[in-house]
């Protein structure tokens, strides 16, 4: 075998590696390979509970508002009924505090005042008689002292009855009314929260896309924040490629690129991001020798309305170098 044949074979093997690394071809174009990515949304539950249903499966297309899953609301419904009962009690207490005492209660307090006045008048008359008898020598000091004690008790009872009547006529204090109003507001807020939880038990898609992963199955007990499915928005797809520093100055934001799949289909794309810092080439992009090189990440936005590009799909981008060759502005 001629000695130059192994050298020729080595050079032929090196050609695709250089192309994948982002070095330009002989015609000056920049060619770089990478993998497609797309926006992924993890749909999670805001409320905990048993997953009652999940009507979508992997591969199903969904639109904004499509029901993704439903959480069992039995416990929420019971809590809502209890909160509504507490609200009714708080509302009754607030209305009672605000309207004050009933006229019947005030009339009863007035009657107690009249009774206390009559008791005081009788006690005073007994005291006067006991003092008169004691002055003539017919009474005893003890009888007079007992009458005096009864008069003082009657006087205190009258003062208490009058104070109670004054309070009932004045009604409840403003602080008591404010406290009752606050309890009513807290009960209403709790009801609003539970009703929102019931609405959140029906989980809908916030975006258009394809269900690419199912995480939870019906019957599982989920905690708040637990993921259920992953939806991928294929319309928002891009290609991540890595280029060496010599090629970086020939790329601009917004620059057009031609992206080709391994199946030979092509689409137009535009540069949407140029890294400002170098990094080591990802292991899934280059050979073992090329992985030790420093490269710059470049994102190429794809026209993917038909869903041609899928996440993880390998593809190759070809870019025409800019004319002036100045350093590209890094996108932050």
Brief rundown of the structure:
By secondary structure, this protein is an alpha+beta fold.
What does it look like?
By secondary structure, the chain is α+β, with helices and mostly antiparallel strands. The chain is 41% helix and 27% strand. The protein contains six helices and 14 strands. It has a six-stranded antiparallel β-barrel with strand order 2-9-13-11-10-14. A hairpin with a 4-residue loop joins strand 10 and strand 11. Helix 2 (74-99) runs antiparallel to helix 5 (174-200). The longest helix is centred in the middle third of the chain and has 34 residues, at 103-136. The protein starts with a helix and ends in a 13-residue tail after the last strand.
Task: Describe the global form.
Answer: rod-shaped
Which residues form runs of ≥5 with pLDDT under 50?
Answer: 1-26, 325-332
| Global Rg | 44 Å
Strand content: 25-35%
Q: What's the total number of strands?
A: 14
Strand order of the largest sheet: 2-9-13-11-10-14
Structural class, by secondary structure, is alpha+beta
Portion of residues in helices? 40-55%
Distance between the termini: 55 Å
Keywords for this structure?
rod-shaped; 6-stranded antiparallel barrel; 27% strand; 4-stranded antiparallel β-sheet; alpha+beta; single chain; 332 residues; disordered C terminus
Strand-helix topology:
Elements lengths: L4 H16 E4 L5 E15 L4 E5 L7 E2 L4 E5 L2 H26 L3 H34 L4 H30 L3 H27 L1 E3 L4 E6 L6 E2 L4 E17 L1 H4 L7 E6 L4 E9 L4 E2 L13 E9 L11 E6 L13
Antiparallel strand pairs: 1-2, 2-9, 2-14, 3-5, 3-8, 4-7, 5-6, 7-9, 9-13, 10-11, 10-14, 11-13, 12-13
Helix pairs in contact: 2-5, 3-4
């Amino acid at each position: 075998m001629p000695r130059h044949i192994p050298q020729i074979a080595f050079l032929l093997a090196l050609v695709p590696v250089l192309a994948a690394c982002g070095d330009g071809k002989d015609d000056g174009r920049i060619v770089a390979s990478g993998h497609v990515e797309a926006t992924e949304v993890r749909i999670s539950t805001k409320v905990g509970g048993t997953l009652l249903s999940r009507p979508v499966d992997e591969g199903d297309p969904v639109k904004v508002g499509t029901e993704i899953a439903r959480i069992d609301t039995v416990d929420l419904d019971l809590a809502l009924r209890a909160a509504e009962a507490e609200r009714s009690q708080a509302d009754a207490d607030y209305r009672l505090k605000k309207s004050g005492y009933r006229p019947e209660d005030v009339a009863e307090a007035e009657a107690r005042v009249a009774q206390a006045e009559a008791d005081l008048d009788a006690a005073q008359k007994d005291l006067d008689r006991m003092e008169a008898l004691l002055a003539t020598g017919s009474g005893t000091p003890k009888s007079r002292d007992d009458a005096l004690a009864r008069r003082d008790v009657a006087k205190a009872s009258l003062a208490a009855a009058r104070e109670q009547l004054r309070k009932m006529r004045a009604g409840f204090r403003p602080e008591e009314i404010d406290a009752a109003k606050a309890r009513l507001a807290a009960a209403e807020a709790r009801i609003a929260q539970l009703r929102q939880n019931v609405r959140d038990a029906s989980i809908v898609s916030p975006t258009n896309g394809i269900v690419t992963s199912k995480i939870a199955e019906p019957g599982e007990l989920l905690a708040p924040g637990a993921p259920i499915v992953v939806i991928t928005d294929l319309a928002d797809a891009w290609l991540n490629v890595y280029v060496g520093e010599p090629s970086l100055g020939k790329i601009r934001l917004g620059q057009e690129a031609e992206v080709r799949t391994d199946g030979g289909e092509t689409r137009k794309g535009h540069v949407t991001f140029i890294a400002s810092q170098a990094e080591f080439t990802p292991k899934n992009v280059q050979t073992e020798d090329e992985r030790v090189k420093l490269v710059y990440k470049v994102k190429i936005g794809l026209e993917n309305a038909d869903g041609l590009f899928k996440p993880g799909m390998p593809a190759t981008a070809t870019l025409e170098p800019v004319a002036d060759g100045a350093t590209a502005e890094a996108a932050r």
